[in-house]
Write a structure and sequence with these properties.
Aldehyde Dehydrogenase, Chain A, domain 2, alpha/beta, 481 residues, globular, 6-stranded mixed beta sheet, Aldehyde Dehydrogenase, Chain A, domain 1, binds nicotinamide-adenine-dinucleotide, 7-stranded mixed beta sheet
Length: 481
Amino acid sequence: MNIPNTMPVQNPRTGEVDYYITPPTAQEVKDIATRLRANQVAWAAAPLEHRLSVLRKFADVVEKNRDAITKAESLDTGRWRISKEAPDGLAWSIRGWCDRAADILARAHLEGTSTIMPNVTYRTQLKPYPLLGVISPWNFPLMLSVIDAIPALIAGCAALIKPSEVTPRFVAPLMDCIAQVPELAGVLHYVVGGGETGQALIGNVDIVCFTGSVNTGRKVAEACARRFIPVFLELGGKDPVIVTENADIDKAATAVLRGSVFATGQICFSLERVYVQEKIHDKFVDLLVKKSEEIELNYPDVHKGHIGPFIFGKQAAVVDSQLDDAVAHGAKIRTGGKSQNLGGGLYMRPTVVTDVTHDMKLMTDETFGPVMPVMKYKTEAEAVKLANETEFGLSGAVIAGSEDEAMKLGQQIDAGGISLQDTILTTAILRDAEKTSFNFSGLGGSRMGPASILRFLRKKALMTQKGDLTAMKSLTELPAA
Ligand code: NAD
């Protein structure tokens, strides 16, 4: 069915189109941006405590409405357990940032006397960008739409968010929550739509946070460059893990499996390349296969099992074609295999592939599925070289016999976040440490640690002359230092 001016949304468990969104016109996006921008002035001028109390109220409302949000998100993701955690995760995240905000902002403020001109004092002023635009992907629909917006709201920005057109159902219940906190509704709004709406958003905001693929990221960066507005890009990955000869094989296999198949492998920092020292390779693969075969699909009951369907049907075709390409070039599928249609949804069992090389797309292109291609290495230098032989550099992992051994290898991997003695630990540092991505995996400052708030503030300096201007010998002389 084709309904004019709407976009169809597919249910990933049934394959049916059972939801439609109506993207705003370019003029509507402009009008929304104008309203947010006008309200932002008072939002930024209010004391920090006011903004924090409004956001804490929002956290309470989100928690009360968790069931409606979970239900909507789950219809788009085809998974239940992860979507169930999303609203509580948002409330937790808001409160966490609110607790840290005053300290982060106080530490960023500088004042003192110039070391070059001792008659001059200075103080800094942090001034928020008026309007943040967020463009987010489909793999964690709610969380990735708010991850940058909450710190920006704390900083004093207004925010206009465009989530993926593949997973927009959570927007209606979330907008109901926003409406219940009128002070927030003035400075936070969602629009639904695809690339065109994304471009309209970029045309009306002052700073952009984009999470998505490298190809779209490039278009977003180009559009922002034309407007001379800053953009933060969080893009794809092809994360490696190195398992050394001295590693505990059982623990390593568990960590690799979890890091590869969690959320059906649809995480930017999923493991997608597994390098194992040749002496333990066969034993490791046997164990990985055994553990993989114990994993159950979330089918037919969404509440049971571990792995849901592909959220975006086209992604299943990408993963299937990478497996075909690998097999055609000599790879062996040890367990799992191409996607299967179950009740209209596209599912893939944890898939272990051996005899892979860097000539296969499976080892070079982002996969975004529950696939574990395993490759042997002889020396540590070779393992590091293989890990770094990629155009990505989001994150990675090392599992070794000791923390020191893992640290030594981890320091040589060119990526933003390296998990040692485990995998996919990146979210652990959300509030604490900063990290940036290497190569094509991203651009701009960290979305983690203090930078997550501070990057939304322009830094001004106010300088006061305390010296005697009349003591100057000539009009062109600088005041006495
Ligand atoms: P995508 O690039 O296809 O789409 C992302 C967003 O961009 C969507 O909202 C889409 O509507 C919008 N968009 C599309 N064309 C646009 C245009 N021309 N101008 C402006 N906006 C446009 O990505 P996706 O398929 O939704 O998400 C999967 C990708 O996201 C993967 O590559 C994954 O690695 C990446 N990702 C990265 C991170 C990270 O933190 N680095 C996190 C999650 C996902």
